[in-house]
Amino acid sequence: MQARKKRILADLLAHLPSARRGWVLAPLFGISLFGVVAATATTPDSPPPFPLQTVVERLPVAPTAADAGSGLPFVHDERVLPGDTIESIFRRLNVSDPEALAFLLGTDEGRTALRQLRSGRAVTALVEPDGRLRALSLPITQASGRFSIERTAEGLQIRGEETQALATVVEMRSGVIQHSLFGATDAAGLPDSVATKLAEIFGTEINFHTDLRRGDSFSVVYETLYDQGSPSRTGKILAAEFVNRGERHVVVLFRGDDGREQYYTADGRSLRQAFLRSPLEFSRVTSGFGRRLHPIHRNWRTHAGVDFAAPIGTPIKATSDGTVSFVGTQRGYGNIIIVQHRDRYSTAYAHLNGFARGLRKGQRVNQGDVIGYVGKTGWATGPHLHYEIRVNNVPHDPMRIALPAAQPLTKGELAKFNEQTSPLVARIALLNRSTVAALR
């Protein structure tokens, strides 16, 4: 039936004049066009009007093996891992070169360089197709030095040590506490070293053992040092914020006119205490302040300080900023250091095994600087530190005395502080907006 209709229509068009053919064809083309539109105007969720078939075709992969006959070396870039040896590094670099290994282990310069390998830093090497080493660059020292060797016509040669500056990049992270601080910092991609420093900075404001709550948040701006394009280690925390129980705490790093850097609140209040309670990190009090039976003379005497028990050689830190007024030996005190501080305060550290290298009278020391080491010189029955706090040269109980607060910034310093730290505070505000947007 359909074929007969098509034939009749074709015969009709053949007998029509040319002028009327267009009149008949125009509606036909219009109908066809609307049909196309109707066919394409289907909803996205409707099934296609034709069956779908998945076709999987395997494509040949071009070989990636280098032409060993070309003589071109391979370029390797690796990272030094914790516990790495030169042998393990060579295995990862695909180096099979006993001569190069013997060269590094058999020269004074090579052995020194291997002892100074820094974890996380970059190792670069040019390796021949047969595994022989053409050139090697190792990271050394605590700064950014490198030790390099290369193969020349005369054999392996030391290129010497060179200093290569690490690139400093400022990074920003924020997170919300769900279960623990370190769980949240891990989820935010924050390095453990920065997380630990974060807890240390806010330790005077927040007790992270008892005060932390779910929903607390943090933001931090910090430095990362890059070695040849890869992160080597973290640098300083420049600014940070911690919201604990709805209370906002902000700290920023400020460099004063003397070049020293300290953490302050956003309004310029120092977070640092004027005095540390103890000059030792880990110790116990074995004798307090006041009258006691002297362990050597066996009579009752006033004990003008506090004794902290610790092994010989334990580092002793200055408890506050000051100037060394005496370093040497004084009768029963044995080796002693006296530091003069502001506002008539001074501290004494006695029975020392030795002094920090280069320590001398008149030298300026900062809070936390190592000034000496625990010993048992003078009238001492065992290794310990005798520590005194004096006001106008009169001893006071270090565990009970009301210590002064840290010195505030002057008006001039406060103006410089606001200028220097406002960009850091702006970064914290930017992180806050990003965190709010992510939580919505």
UniProtKB/TrEMBL annotation:
Pfam families: Peptidase_M23. CDD domains: M23_peptidase (cd12797). SUPFAM superfamilies: Duplicated hybrid motif. The keyword tRNA processing does not apply. Residues 302-398 form the M23ase beta-sheet core domain. InterPro entries: Cell_wall_metabolism_enzyme (IPR050570), Dup_hybrid_motif (IPR011055), M23ase_b-sheet_dom (IPR016047). Its cofactor is Zn(2+). Keywords: Hydrolase, Metal-binding, Metalloprotease, Protease, Zinc. This is Peptidoglycan DD-metalloendopeptidase family protein.
